[in-house]
Design brief:
binds guanosine-5'-triphosphate, alpha/beta, binds magnesium ion, single chain, two-stranded antiparallel ribbon, 3 domains, 13 helices, 11 strands, globular, seven-stranded parallel beta sheet
Length: 340
């Protein structure tokens, strides 16, 4: 393949070239050397897309929901980029036959771009490359970016935090427990969806979710030094977010409830905009990213200056109780300081 300069690739991507988009995403996903230049060049074009995170237990119908949602958004003439962080997702071809036909409907449409990312890699790395892939799609001009992750734990919660609107998907009949509790993802939901509402058990699930929402109040979060923290009032007590989390019933395989879901997303979007919350969240996210990257760079720069033997010796000294960990850090930061 002919080598394309990052600027050329980015200008092709900005011009709507789908192959350039695919190649850019691959470079970014693999953290290829040119990805730094690519991300730098396209950064000024980011920050426009509205992002929707969809998470929930395996098999609740997330991919079908993403498909139905996308078809609806396309009717409103919105372009949609989809990132599926999920090795078992139908987007990667592991679907039952019916799903695969549905996906083909989507991928034949130039207003839709689907990318699946294997959930390999360490926690921070996965979250970061996912953000970067989102940025690429954002710069490519998609109106909406949807991220699907299996809500199995902290990993996915981190990724979904990058979304403007987070949808947690439940389905009836997956066991007695509400699946989201296990992963602790209920509190990140801006909208709850009970999919597979064609099941006779749907009302049980809706009732259980309502009861749980009544029990817990979500703390209002505020950006502080790069982290989202609980907002407190003048007495130090936490403030709560009393926005009601809607529970929406859908049948993803036939589109039932999807227009109600889109209305709920629009309402949440307005809520974020009217209260300046979207801006606050973006600020917090960027602060967090800046600090994370700073830590990583400082650590790398420092470790580059420390010979392996010095490092190994230090570990041995720690093990032999000749030095304590805090002093060990000091000696690494200040090599002139004698090891005592
Ligand atoms: N009856 C019924 N089946 C559904 C509905 N939505 C999805 N399904 C079926 O549920 C199964 C799982 O759907 P997926 O969309 O792959 O679910 P998922 O949550 O993306 O699954 P993972 O990505 O593996 O976690 C498929 O066989 C779908 O056909 C629905 O509303 N009603
Ligand atoms: Mg899926």
């Amino acid at each position: 393949m002919l080598k394309t300069f990052p600027e050329t690739l980015v200008s092709q991507l900005l011009a709507g070239n789908r192959r350039a988009l695919a190649r850019t995403i691959t470079a970014v996903e693999n953290e290829a050397p040119e990805s730094v230049e690519i991300l730098k060049t396209l950064y000024p074009y980011t920050g426009r897309a509205y992002t929707i995170g969809i998470t929930g237990a395996p098999g609740t119908g997330k991919s079908c929901l993403v498909t139905a949602l996308t078809q609806h958004l396309r009717k409103q003439n919105k372009t949609v980029g989809i990132i599926a962080v999920d090795p078992t997702s139908p987007f990667t071809g592991g679907a039952v036959l019916g799903d695969r036909f549905r996906m083909r409907d989507l991928s034949g449409d130039s207003g839709v771009f689907i990318r699946s990312m294997a959930s390999r890699g360490h926690l921070g790395g996965l979250a970061r490359t996912t953000y970067d892939v989102m940025r690429v799609m954002d710069a490519a001009g998609f109106d909406i970016i949807i991220i699907e992750t299996v809500g199995a734990g902290q990993n996915e919660v981190e990724i979904v935090k990058a979304a403007d609107t987070t949808i947690v998907v439940e389905a009836p009949g997956l066991g007695d427990d509400i699946q989201a509790i296990k992963a602790g993802i209920l509190e990140i939901a801006d909208i709850l969806v009970v999919n597979k509402a064609d099941s006779p058990l749907v009302q049980n699930t809706v009732r259980a979710l309502k009861a749980m929402l009544d029990l817990g109040h979500r703390q209002r979060l505020v950006a502080h030094h790069g982290q989202l923290m609980a907002q407190t009032d003048s007495t130090g007590a936490p403030e709560y977010d009393f926005r009601e989390v809607p529970i929406i019933q859908t049948v993803a395989i036939n589109g039932q409830g999807i227009s109600t879901l889109v209305e709920a997303i629009d309402a949440h979007r307005s809520y974020l905009a009217e209260n300046g919350i979207r801006q606050d969240r973006q600020r917090a996210r960027l602060q967090g990213e800046l600090i994370a990257r700073l830590k990583e760079t400082l650590l790398k720069n420092l470790l580059d200056t420390v010979p392996d033997e010095t490092f190994d010796q230090l570990i041995e000294s720690l093990l032999a109780r000749q030095i304590d960990p805090v002093s060990a850090v000091q000696s690494l930061l200040n090599p002139q300081r004698p090891l005592s």
